[in-house]
Amino acid sequence: MQELQLLKDRLDALLKKYTAVEAENIRLKNTVTDQLKFIESLNHKLTSLEDNMLAHQIGKSVLDGSEKEKMRRQIDNVISEIDKIMNTLND
Fold this sequence. Notes:
By secondary structure, the protein is mostly helical. It has two helices and no strands.
């Protein structure tokens, strides 16, 4: 009879441990999910910052006076070509 009680006590202890481990497993899965979401948001933020940095570098390189004038002439030429095409389409 004593052996049966000992077996029952061990089974109860194992069931308690199993329940605790199961709860811990669920908690850890939730933590992993939260961390993955956080990593994804950081990756989006990094991409945005890289885009801003690239735009800043491009803008900075255009600030040179001669480059700025050259770009302005190119834009004027493109606009002139668009105007010519629009006039041709309107005729």
